[in-house]
Amino acid sequence: MRIDCSELELDALRELTRDAAARAAAALSERLGMPIEVAVAAAYALPAAGALAATGRAELPVTGVAIALDGDLAAIALVLLREHDVATLCFLLGLEPDSEHAASALEEVVEALADAYLLALAGVTGLSLAAGPPQHVVGTLGEIVGSLPGASAGDAALMLDAALVIAAQSCAVSLLLVPAR
What is the dihedral of CA 133, 77, 81, 104, to 10 degrees? Predict the structure, then answer.
């Protein structure tokens, strides 16, 4: 992947992020049965190491879904929620964060968010993306990112961030798209 993006390409990334965040908000709204607004959306094309660092500290606890992509783009899509955002979603779902039901519900919600992001990416870029089975991931950001196969720190990564507002509470969602070899 290329890192140097023109202003026009960065604008297209921002539009992709807005579309993806809107799709993710709609999917999550349907799952939770309550309105969700997109408060903030940003897009970055960075070296993979920079995108990972921008996501947070290596010891940051996160929950997410990793999806291997094939087709026009061989990559790993990683949708992440920080601990606070997991607690927010569990509260809204009426679940205890450490319960078995919460883990299953969070996996479904994060999968829906990942699907929404990937549909938006395919729609905006025209790429054919074949998604592999989602893998639920829980641990520190460093552990999860370190377990991604094939990604090199020298590669470029796409990072999409959104802040969803659910029942007046903010919930941040990050998507990393890292090339796979």
Answer: 0
